[in-house]
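Illustration: Cell division protein FtsA.
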Amino acid sequence: MMSDAMTSRLRPVQPGKTTLVAVLDIGSTKVCCVIARLTPRAEGKALKGRSHQAQVIGFGYGPSAGVKSGVVTDIEKAEQTIRSVVGMAERSAGLTLESVIVNVTAGRLGSETFSAAVSLDGQEVEKADIRRVLRAVNERSVRPERSIIHALPIGYAIDGQKGIRDPKGMVGDKLGVDVAVVSSETLAMRNLELVLHRCHLQIEALIATPYASGLSTLVDDEAKLGVACIDFGGATTTVSVFNEGHLVYADAIAIGGHHLTLDIARQLSVSVADAERLKTFYGSVLPGQADERDMIPIQPVGASHDEAPGQVARSVLTRIMRPRIEEILTAIRDRMQATGMMDVCGRRFVLTGGASEMTGLPEVARRTLARNVRTGRPMGVAGLPEMAKGAAFATVTGMLVYPQVCAKEYSEPRGSHKLTGTDGYFARVGNWLRTSF
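Result:
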């Protein structure tokens, strides 16, 4: 069974207090560790749900190894990479880490909305009633093979009247709640935990990658009116939908920017490193007028250095890349339509992640999804190095925001005893944190 470190509830940052937070983004193409100081914002300057300003004091970054599509495939290589990156961040911050907040992309990430109701008998709603109704949701949502990462109450109802934010103190006969539950396969997360324990690190909290990306790139009005955030990663593409300010849906597909690189390498018979260079410098998913005339030098794989490089038209590169991008966008659109989320997300999509900076991607996304599209960059974090200010670092930036917004989640408080003889958090999400309301 998972250790208690995996199941611990992240302690929300206290208003008016400065605290340190360490986050670790384990991706398929890069691993990034950031240590930041969260300082309270000045009176009247605090954003909704963002009570603190993040100031980065330690940063470590390196290419990923031993991880594929968010899943640990080689424990030795993954351990070496994480040790190296965390060590880099520790040296620049001048401190030693014991625990980190870690993102989760692996294990067929998915989400469902569960509803439950309890009787009030005409009495006022108290904290105990809220805990009862959330426990009732938990009874329905728990499955032995999946682990719950987030359980987010997205709306309460009293006697069928929906849209209630905080029911405490109200009177009625029946209290209902809708909870968005984000979960992942338990075995994939156990391997993640195992690697971090080998690095002598405890998991302070887990956050789903699409949730983190949304926290860092979306503005308040978007999250309230309805928006979907697509994070184009190296080997996975994740999507999150926000409505009424809450995360209501999260999903991931195992196709990302690295698959475009492999397509180019296979079609043009060049090395993977050369294919990555071609994609970065010349790649576009939107054809241009001069593409047939623009010739790009390529070095066929296995060719000696004294051989003259070959040439292909830029249009050939576009024709290789565009079908893969359309495949990713179509898969996301179809999955969202199947779950009814295309209506929930309104008329807006935000693109982020390293592969989102591809030329022409917003235009292709606009046509495929039939929605307004913009490119999102991480906001609200100071002190990041210049290289880490792009969309590729949206997830790690969102993980710094998470301690400020985690107070409303339903999960197990630190040090609490198991309610039953079952396996704690991953079989029971746990008690409702008293300070949540």
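Reading the tokens back as a structure: The first helix runs from residue 4 to 7.
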